[in-house]
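Subject: Sanity check before I submit

Could someone independently write out the structure tokens for this chain? I want to compare against mine line by line before I put it in a report. The sequence has 123 residues.
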Amino acid sequence: MALTKYHIHEEIDGVKCSIAEKNCTKDRAEFLKNLLTYNGFEVKIGISAPPKALAKPAAPDAAPVEAEAAPETYTVGVTDIVFNPVHALYSRLLHTPDGHVVTVAYWLQKETVSHDDVPYYQR
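---
Independent answer below. Compare away.
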């Protein structure tokens, strides 16, 4: 999930980054890169570590079953280590290229996106 309650830091290409999202697709990583770059952040994208195989042998004597190859996923981070995506969204700090405030729906790329001028806490 994109929004976490933790402020996560990792190294991407040898640079300490605040993580915006992990295990996302290439299209999602490109969307976040464009959005965050527009808002003045230096963005780093790295390949996420593949998930551990979950396949177990059916019986103790059986040969191990091969897990299907997982699709390649990416980690998106910004070099500003105080960046926190939850804080940035709910504090209305990010803006779209057309001048609207980035909402949670926009961040999550929901099909029906509304650009509300009313903060979430006043609804």
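---
OP: Matches mine. For the report I'm noting this point. Residues 9-50+73-122 form one domain.
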